[in-house]
Write a sequence for this structure.
């Protein structure tokens, strides 16, 4: 088969031609579908053996988007060329300086007048790929703008390819080399004709905005409306605002004071250096005389001010707070209110009685058991977390790089590395090289470096100074004055880095920070986001903030994708996919992992106990604190917490989990437990909504039966497709006859429904159970979770591409016969014109399920090699079927790997495929007992090319 001939036939002659590989692609950025030109570019770079990029315009952000791919290519000895220009003065000197930091790229500058090309050429060894269109190497073009690009493939002898290659070589030879000398001259003469500075209006009211009149942004308007409704409709005296760092909380507070017009206001912060800035922000919004505003701190005591800004350290002292009457302030605001569990805050909150108390925080979650939500009567006025803030463009975009930490003689930095290992000359030089390579906006770093130990931070600062990089060191032992002085020096450019241990996790505002460096393991998602947040405030001095995270052999590396994605599902496969597919990061931000760093994170995920009882217990009480009530499974789902299926897979029922915590409201009988166990295990995944819709209609409306005619009307109302075969399977599932005896035995042969003529009826025993209100509540909760999951599937199709399925759920969705347990199904089964294949790609060392190890594998994203069970021959029934399978639908389900440490039993659906008849052959393979057995090997062509991120996730390629 000639893949390229088929691909060109399909693209340019007849779209009905079957073609699985080398198909031309039309590429646009589509944020709703999470598809971007950037993803395709990164994947092509990863796979190529060389590359040639010819683009007129390059930005530092666009270059950052491919730096980890460039670094990985360099480690494999692969290099490439970039041809660019000085057309319209778009490419500034900083970009050329950044290009010179990439060792495996040669750069030349075209002298051609009006150079405006946009092309990307990749050598894929067996063929060439080129992309031509409208996208320059800028983040807007790669991820945001509406751009048109066409991707084509060619063999080496193709005329179009030869024309492009010859033209590029000619242009390359005429172009000028990028050198230090050229750059120095360009920098002296640079006068941009286009204004490409970071001039987009800041949607967040910046604390340094000098304008006289400021309007609330979108977030602030919603929060202000919610605060007003809290007071007017709920008569609330307290409210909590949860808002990511840098989204304008201070201005929000000032806007709320302006709309409420209290007689006197107290604003409490925990650091003196924030006071003056907060007071200036309030002046801009509220106006009035300067005499109305004053501070109560270690340096100023203007206690008569109408708007008083106080540090908690000062006002919590009895000789100060007792200077005021308890009702002296109508409105009190507490910044960083997650600290309110401390004794100093409790004194203030207990003493004063304002008409309204507002708390503001980016991280309300606590590890000391103190309940912030309870303190504010569970009144959450507004909440916006990192992902939403990025999507709304409230924050400065960040470029996160997970990079490989220093390694020598196979020894890698880890939690117990000695100070000498952390600060030796080789590691210091390694760190400097990486910092230079990944750079920062403008190439002049103003960086915060978070270290694991005080001595490490101190010694590294000394070493950086020795290497000519002006740096300082701060710890908790340094006074506020010392800290403020070092911050001033950093912002003024007197030093490039401040090395610290947790001093700047929160509550500090350094807008000019353009680089965050993490030289420590990630102990918690909260701290990770706090440290990341130090650079997210928008400022005209930077276009983005660079985050460089050095990944050693840390056991907590798995927390990194959790923190970045905000995915608290505790599902290991979700976390693995978040490491590979970072399209969850919205806007102009990006997340990239070097290959070795990614492998270390994967090892950490494999070893982590994400679904341990202790982890789920902690999430339970976190939710309970927030809700002021016992959370049910749907609460976990609604709040983006632990995935309910993770809890069910571990505990069998949510009731069993609650009982272990002694949080159950009532006791269930053994029959009720078995019924709940059946519903939880068989339906919570939601692979098909039909049964769930029917059961919820009967149960939640306290019916005892439904006529078949009523059921079809119900399915019609919910726009659910059905036919006689689907209805037959639905009824078999509901009356349990679909399930084999071994499955039914797991639930003590419980039966919930029976078919009586043309009616679906509850059994008498299930009807009696429904009289128990607590059982009723647990059942409805379970079914609602299942239905919520079901709406995530495509209800117009039996199966949804890339969704997870258990073997029996796949058979149910396809209306197949389930007449053997899942273990007996093994690798494949067939009935009802469907042939389903289940494959575990990486069997792992502890895989003992088969007598023979089958080497099923992807040949590429369009082809799959597969082996039948043993012993089988060319004349076996399934082989004959596959050789003449025109009337059969062949489905592929794949699991990444088998591991006893994982409870994951789901397979990803990769679509339908057709056998390549000429590849079918009978061979012999050795069993684990050393006996040769006959098997049949064949290759399949997939109908849908496996999308790159899924392919990498499943294969590691």
């Amino acid at each position: 088969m000639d893949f390229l001939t088929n691909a060109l036939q399909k693209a340019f002659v007849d779209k009905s031609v079957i073609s699985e590989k080398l198909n031309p692609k039309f590429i646009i950025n589509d944020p709703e579908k999470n598809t971007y030109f950037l993803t395709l570019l990164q994947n092509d770079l990863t796979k190529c053996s060389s590359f040639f990029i010819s683009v007129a315009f390059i930005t530092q952000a666009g270059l950052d988007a491919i730096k980890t791919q460039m670094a990985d290519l360099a480690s494999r000895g692969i290099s490439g060329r970039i041809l660019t220009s000085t057309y319209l003065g778009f490419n500034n000197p900083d970009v050329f300086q950044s290009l010179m930091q990439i060792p495996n790229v040669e750069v030349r500058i075209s002298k051609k007048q009006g150079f405006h090309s946009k092309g990307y050429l990749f050598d894929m060894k067996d063929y060439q790929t080129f992309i031509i269109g409208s996208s320059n190497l800028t983040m807007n073009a790669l991820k945001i703008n509406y751009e048109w690009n066409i991707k084509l493939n060619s063999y080496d002898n193709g005329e179009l390819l030869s024309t492009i290659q010859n033209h590029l070589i000619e242009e390359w030879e005429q172009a000028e080399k990028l050198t230090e000398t050229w750059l120095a001259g360009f920098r002296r003469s640079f006068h941009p004709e286009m204004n490409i500075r970071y001039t987009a209006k800041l949607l967040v009211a910046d604390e340094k905005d000098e304008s006289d009149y400021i309007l609330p942004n979108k977030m602030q308007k919603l929060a202000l409306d919610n605060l007003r409704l809290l007071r007017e409709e709920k008569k609330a005296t307290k409210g909590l605002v949860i808002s990511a760092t840098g989204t304008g909380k201070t201005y929000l507070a000032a806007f709320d004071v302006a709309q409420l017009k209290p007689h006197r206001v107290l604003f409490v912060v925990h650091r003196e250096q924030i006071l003056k800035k907060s007071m200036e922000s309030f002046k801009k919004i509220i106006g009035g005389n300067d005499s109305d505003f004053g501070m109560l701190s270690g340096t100023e005591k203007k206690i008569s001010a109408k708007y008083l800004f106080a540090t908690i350290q000062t006002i919590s002292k009895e000789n100060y707070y007792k200077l005021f009457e308890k009702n002296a302030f109508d409105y009190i605001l507490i910044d960083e209110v997650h600290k309110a569990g401390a004794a100093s805050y409790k004194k203030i909150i207990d003493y004063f009685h304002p008409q309204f108390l507002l708390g503001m925080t980016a991280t309300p979650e606590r590890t000391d058991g103190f309940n912030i939500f309870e303190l504010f009567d569970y009144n959450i006025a507004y909440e916006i977390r990192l992902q939403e803030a990025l999507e709304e463009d409230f924050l400065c975009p960040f470029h996160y790089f997970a990079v490989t930490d220093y390694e020598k003689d196979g020894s890698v930095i880890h939690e117990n590395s000695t100070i000498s290992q952390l600060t030796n000359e080789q590691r210091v030089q390694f760190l400097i090289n990486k910092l230079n390579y990944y750079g920062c906006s403008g190439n002049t770093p103003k960086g915060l470096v978070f270290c694991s130990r005080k001595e490490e931070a101190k010694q590294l600062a000394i070493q950086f100074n020795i290497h000519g990089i002006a740096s300082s060191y701060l710890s908790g032992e340094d006074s506020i004055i010392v800290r403020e002085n070092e911050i001033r020096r950093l912002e003024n450019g007197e030093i490039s880095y401040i090395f610290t241990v947790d001093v700047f996790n929160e509550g500090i505002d350094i807008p000019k920070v353009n680089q965050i460096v993490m030289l420590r393991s990630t102990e918690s998602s909260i701290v990770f986001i706090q440290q990341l947040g130090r650079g997210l405030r928008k400022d005209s001095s930077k276009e983005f903030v660079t985050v460089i995270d050095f990944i050693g052999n840390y056991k907590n590396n798995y927390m990194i994708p959790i923190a970045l994605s905000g995915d608290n599902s505790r599902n290991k496969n979700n976390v693995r996919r978040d490491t590979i597919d970072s399209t969850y990061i919205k806007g102009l931000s990006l997340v990239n992992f070097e290959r070795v760093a990614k492998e270390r994170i994967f090892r950490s995920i494999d070893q982590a106990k994400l679904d341990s009882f202790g982890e789920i217990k902690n999430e339970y009480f976190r939710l309970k604190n927030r809700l002021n009530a016992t959370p049910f499974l749907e609460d976990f789902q609604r709040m983006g917490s632990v995935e309910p299926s993770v809890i069910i897979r571990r505990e069998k029922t949510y009731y069993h989990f609650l009982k272990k915590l002694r949080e159950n409201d009532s006791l269930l009988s053994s029959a009720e437990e078995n019924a709940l166990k059946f519903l939880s295990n068989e339906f919570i995944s939601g692979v098909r909504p039909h049964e769930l819709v029917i059961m919820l209609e009967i149960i939640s409306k306290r019916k005892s039966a439904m006529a078949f005619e009523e059921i079809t009307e119900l399915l019609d109302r919910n726009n659910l497709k059905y036919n006689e075969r689907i209805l037959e399977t639905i009824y078999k599932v509901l009356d349990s006859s679909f399930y084999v005896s071994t499955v039914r035995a797991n639930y003590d042969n419980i039966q919930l429904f029976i078919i009586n003529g043309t009616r679906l009826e509850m059994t008498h025993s299930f009807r009696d159970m429904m009289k128990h209100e607590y059982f009723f509540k647990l059942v409805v909760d379970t079914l609602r979770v299942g239905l919520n999951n079901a709406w995530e599937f495509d209800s117009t199709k039996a199966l949804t591409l890339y969704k997870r399925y258990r073997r029996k759920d796949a058979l149910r969705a396809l209306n197949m016969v389930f007449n053997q347990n899942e273990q007996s199904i093994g690798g494949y089964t067939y009935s009802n014109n469907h042939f389903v294949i289940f494959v575990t790609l990486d069997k792992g060392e502890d895989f003992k399920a088969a007598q023979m190890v089958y080497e099923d594998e992807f040949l590429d994203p369009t082809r799959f090699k597969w082996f039948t069970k043993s012993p089988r021959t060319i004349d076996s029934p399934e082989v004959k079927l596959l050789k003449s399978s025109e009337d059969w639908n062949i489905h592929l389900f794949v699991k990444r790997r088998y591991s006893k440490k994982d409870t994951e039993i789901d397979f990803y659906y990769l679509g339908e495929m057709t056998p390549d008849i000429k590849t079918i052959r009978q061979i012999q393979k050795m069993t684990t007992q050393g006996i040769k057995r006959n098997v049949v090997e064949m290759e399949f062509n997939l109908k849908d090319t496996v999308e790159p991120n899924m392919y990498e996730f499943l294969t590691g390629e």
User: Anything to note?
Assistant: Residues 218-390 form a domain with the Rossmann fold fold (CATH 3.40.50.300). The radius of gyration is 31 Å. The first strand starts at residue 25 and ends at 27. The mean pLDDT is 90.
